[in-house]
Design brief:
mainly alpha; 3 helices; 2 strands; 12% strand; cytoplasm; Pyridoxine-5'_phos_synth
């Protein structure tokens, strides 16, 4: 995963250097979102499938709360 994470970091930096707003999504789930959320410069995370799938077991309120907690913890300086 370290190689893929470095590719994401490089892509974020490239986009920022070009003046783009950088968002991330596709394939984010409860086990990898923290590493991506910790990358400085990402404006928005798009998480769909993992959230809906988890909501089947814990409800949307619980699924969103868990994901939000992971993202906020990872994004702290």
């Amino acid at each position: 995963m370290a190689d893929e994470l470095q590719r994401i970091i490089d892509g974020v930096n490239c986009g920022l250097n070009e003046g783009l707003i950088v968002n991330a999504g596709h394939g984010l789930h409860y086990h990898n979102v923290e590493a991506v959320a910790a990358i400085k410069g990402i404006n928005e995370l798009n998480i769909g499938h993992a959230l809906v799938a988890h909501a089947l077991f814990v409800g949307f309120k619980g699924a969103v709360a868990e994901m939000k907690a992971l993202i906020l913890a990872a994004a702290k300086p």
